[in-house]
Design a protein that fits this description.
Length: 139
């Protein structure tokens, strides 16, 4: 990373324990946390207005055999991801399932597969912020 400004990262997660773990990992990297947002309306408001360099979104997956349930609190997070992309903010999905369940427009988006290790989290964050003028520190 270049520069000496602190990175600001939005994350969207509706599971409190997972949110605490991710927030701790971000803080350990020296990142300023935007959010966390546990509801889509919160995430949309932050995605529209907050200054940030990247975003990490929870990507819940299949809840029933044939139904793809991609939501936070019963709502899809794809609108948030679309808005962030329009702003040029890199998006990272976190999921317990494979990235093949993502809609075509999000194929190739960096995806953390839950449960993920701290080293993989750091690697994905560094890659997402590689073009940013901010800096993160590897633990």
């Amino acid at each position: 990373m270049r520069g000496n400004t602190i990175c600001r990262v939005l994350f969207v997660e509706d599971e409190p324990l997972v949110a605490m773990m991710i927030e701790d990992m971000l803080i350990d990297l020296g990142v300023e946390v935007v959010g966390p947002a546990s509801r889509v309306d919160q995430a949309l408001a932050l995605a529209r207005e907050a200054d940030m360099e990247a975003a990490l979104e929870d990507f819940p997956a299949y809840r029933q055999a044939d139904v793809l349930d991609i939501n936070v609190g019963g709502q899809s997070t794809y609108e948030v991801a679309d808005l962030l992309r329009q702003r040029g903010v890199p998006v990272i999905f976190a999921t317990g399932y494979g990235s093949s369940a993502l809609p075509e427009r999000f194929r190739g988006t960096p995806t953390l597969h839950k449960p993920f290790e701290r080293s993989r989290f750091e690697e994905v964050m560094q890659a997402a912020l590689a073009e940013s003028p901010c800096e993160i520190s590897a633990a």
